[in-house]
Amino acid sequence: MKPIAVVILNWNGASLLQEYLPSVCRHTPVELADVIVADNGSTDASVEVLSREFPSVRTILFAENYGFAEGYNRAIEQLADYPYIVLLNSDVAVTEGWLQPLYDYAEAHNDVAAMQPKIRAYRDRESFEYAGAAGGYLDCNAYPYCRGRIFDTVERDNGQYDEVCDVAWASGAALFVRTDLYLKAGGLDARFFAHMEEIDLCWRLRLMGYRVVAVPQGVVYHYGGASLDSSSPRKLYLNYRNNLLMMYKNLPSDIRAWRIFRRQVYDGVSAVKYLLSGQWHFVKAVWDAHQDFAKMKKQYHTQPTENRLNDLPQGRVNIILDYFLRGKKRYTDIIK
């Protein structure tokens, strides 16, 4: 049994498989990992492409589309014998040596549950990629940001974030995780449908007492936006709703109500901004997100006793004030 399963979840992504899977097969050491595609009931030529062009790739075929989170959960349940799993997006190209540094770090540090490599942009190879960059954090209001990306400001990679460091979350674009801990934590929350589910998982792993780490010695390139465009009201809705759900699930009860109220105030300001700019579809997305959060939070009945939102120094900043009022656009400026 090899130690790692690199799992790519696919749904009607035949063209993505043809473009990105060759690099995964070429640069993933055969002695270290198996490359596995879990197909979510595709109706295009995906299965045919896999059979014809990638005979060495193992496949898990589902009869229907279970979505991102549940699809991965079902696949990983079948792969429990692998000590490590890499959840790799279908629009990610990897580089030579991308996997070894993560494996070596995991083997040397039993207290680490999850990791990510450095993630650069596929369309601009010298810049970080929005969804993960060089490792992710949450500020005091649970807004996510990264080393190398604050809101829409994405930095060029000049080696400024090449040190291994603890982070609050690792990107789901290339998430290296211990299989037993993934399953023990309950995997990705399928109720999220999409967006924030890996941040929620990392939060739960940290509440279990484990670390999450960025290992930038491994490098991958992520296209991004293959599922939902950044200008999509649906994406905005999911991000707002799921962020509130994540806070509700993972904050202790003694601070949860105040933190969520404060976050809702910020979201309200955002909605007013959209209103003044005539973006009615975004206003509706924010409103719907808060309405559905109020309904969905009733599904969660346990709260932790420990606050892991602010235990890292990066979790004590307010990036709304820093970015929009103080003009701090880069990670290095904010953490000063």
Your description of this structure?
The structure is a single chain. By secondary structure, the protein is of the alpha/beta class. 38% of the residues lie in helices and 20% in strands. The chain is built from eleven helices and 13 strands. The radius of gyration is 19 Å and the shape is globular. The N and C termini lie far apart (46 Å). The mean pLDDT is 95.
Q: Helical residue percent?
A: 25-40%
Q: Please give the alpha-carbon distance between the first and last residues.
A: 46 Å
Oligomer: single chain
If helices are DSSP runs of H or I spanning 4 or more residues, what is the number of helices?
A: 11
Query: What number is the mean pLDDT?
Result: 95
| Global morphology | globular
Structural class computed from helices and strand pairing: alpha/beta
- Bin the strand percentage: 15-25%
User: Could you give a short account of the major beta sheet?
Assistant: 9 strands, mixed
Helix-strand string = EHEHEHEEHEEEEEEEHHEHHHHH
Rg to the nearest angstrom?
Answer: 19 Å
Fold blueprint:
Blueprint: E1 4-10, H1 14-27, E2 33-40, H2 46-53, E3 58-62, H3 67-77, E4 84-88, E5 92-94, H4 100-108, E6 112-121, E7 136-138, E8 144-146, E9 149-150, E10 153-154, E11 165-166, E12 174-178, H5 179-184, H6 197-207, E13 211-222, H7 233-250, H8 253-276, H9 280-296, H10 319-325, H11 331-334
Parallel strand pairs: 1-2, 1-4, 2-3, 6-13
Antiparallel strand pairs: 4-12, 5-13, 6-12, 7-8, 9-10, 11-13
Helix pairs in contact: 1-2, 7-8, 7-9, 8-9
